[in-house]
Protein: Aminoglycoside phosphotransferase domain-containing protein
Amino acid sequence: MATVTDLEDKHKVIVKSTRRHFRDLHEFCAEKGRAPKLLGYGNALDGWHVIVMEWIDYEEFDLEHYSLKYLETSSKDLRRLVNKSHEKGWVDGDHREANMMTSKRNPEEIMLVDFDWGGEVDSGPLYIQLLMFTRTW
Structure:
């Protein structure tokens, strides 16, 4: 976590460094309210990228302790989002629990927070695309 100064206000942000990040998919999911807003993206040394996202008041998604009453709604929402991204020709091969967070105020609301394995269909390693198409979301 880092703090960035915007005019007179200080805001918490999420700062991540990664070798891969599918920016288009991240921005698409953020527009749909299913990912933190992307505030900044830059290239660092040796092929690394730095991503700055808005801070979200969410907690780690834990399927084992997630209420069944929320699961049906949230899984339908994610399935719709995935289908819309597929219509654009995009895949995200890593919808594991570690890459999702759930709202503390509204547990049905799940955010995707990792887009390292995203890409255009047929643009990356086959195992990434196979993972995406075999998920049951």
The domain at 2-134 is CATH 1.10.510.10 (Transferase(Phosphotransferase); domain 1). The beta strands are 2-6, 9-18, 38-43, 49-54, 58-60, 90-92, 100-103, 110-112, 118-120.
